[in-house]
Write a structure and sequence with these properties.
The chain has helices at 10-21, 27-32, 37-42, 44-54, 92-102, 129-146, 164-177, 187-200, 203-212, 228-244, 257-263, 270-286; strands spanning 73-80, 83-90, 107-110, 153-157, 182-186, 215-219, 249-253, 287-291. The radius of gyration is 27 Å and the shape is elongated. The protein contains 12 helices and 8 strands. It has 2 domains: 10-91, no CATH class; 103-291, 3-Layer(aba) Sandwich (Rossmann fold). The chain has a 6-stranded parallel beta sheet, sandwiched between helices.
Length: 292
């Protein structure tokens, strides 16, 4: 804390005490504790420091832009035994990060880069109307689900390297901080694992896990090598179970849904078209499409 020397100018102390007494940010604190001018005078250094430092937190977009000397630590005033004390405590961004760290054991990241564990909505770039709308949708979905309401997930699609994976990761971490078990998986590698797990005898266990986890997020669906077996025996049953059990499910893809529907049909045979149609219909019922 910066120390101010007012001994050489006692008049200045009176002026500062009067100014602090009328400060709209400090006034509620003074009224709450019935603080006198004498107490304010004794704590001039603390109060001036607080007033200067708390301004750094105004309109802060997140920890990445923190202006405090110690990242994420916000100044607070306490009143004990007739004296004002200046202390520091984690801001809401730091608390959210700490909560996220505590909840990382709830997230099962399959074939995903480590960066997904640090993705947060606080760092979500809302530099366009579309991004702002997407942020609001995510907050709405997670808050509704926390209240026990049924929700649709999102089908995020758009060109390569536009932030779909990061967005899914931020959604996953938000659900984790709310106490839910989450699986986020890179779908092409997941599909390959499903094929190899037949030999290891773990296929049914993995399918059951994907069916029943609180929140499932599949990244880059449509990016895998097409397999009718994966479509009919793996993906179809997982999506059907989650649809009936009303479990939030999210996807990302380079393909819009109408293009993804073509991907899931390998031939012009009617039976193939029906099978592909069923997958797309389940995705439509589980999610709301959003073009990033």
């Amino acid at each position: 804390m910066r120390k101010y020397d007012f001994k050489a100018n006692p008049t200045l102390v009176d002026e500062i005490v009067e100014e602090l007494s009328e400060d709209q940010r400090l006034k509620p604190f003074f009224l709450k504790h019935d603080i006198t001018s004498e107490v304010i005078e004794d704590a001039v250094n603390e109060l001036v420091t607080f007033r200067e430092e708390i301004k750094r937190c105004d309109d802060c977009p997140g920890l990445h832009a923190c202006k405090q000397d110690t990242t994420g630590m916000q100044p607070v005033l306490k009143y004990r035994r007739g004296r004002i004390a200046l202390e520091y405590q984690p801001c809401h961004y730091m608390r959210a990060k700490d909560k996220q760290m505590e909840s990382k054991h709830r997230i099962n990241a399959l074939y995903m880069p480590k960066m997904i564990l640090d993705a947060t909505l606080e760092d979500f770039y809302m530099n366009t109307k579309e991004r702002n709308d997407l942020y609001k949708k995510i907050i709405g979905i997670t808050n509704q689900y926390a209240k026990g309401e049924s929700v649709k997930g999102l089908y995020l699609h758009g060109r390569y390297q536009i932030g779909k994976t990061y967005t899914l990761a931020a959604i996953a971490n938000r659900f984790c901080t709310m106490g839910y078990e989450v699986i986020i998986a890179y779908y092409p590698d997941l599909a390959r694992e499903m094929k190899s797990s037949i030999k290891t005898g773990t296929l049914e266990e993995r399918i059951a896990q994907l069916k029943t986890v609180d929140v499932l997020l599949l990244d880059d669906i449509g990016g895998e090598m097409f397999s009718a077996w994966i479509r009919d025996e793996i993906l179809g049953p997982i999506l059907q179970y989650r649809l009936l059990d009303e479990k939030p499910t999210f996807f990302s893809s380079n393909l819009p849904l109408n293009e993804l529907s073509k991907y899931f049909i390998s031939t012009d045979q009617q039976q193939e078209k029906i099978k592909g149609f069923r997958i797309i219909e389940r995705i439509k019922k589980l999610t709301e499409p959003f073009n990033m």
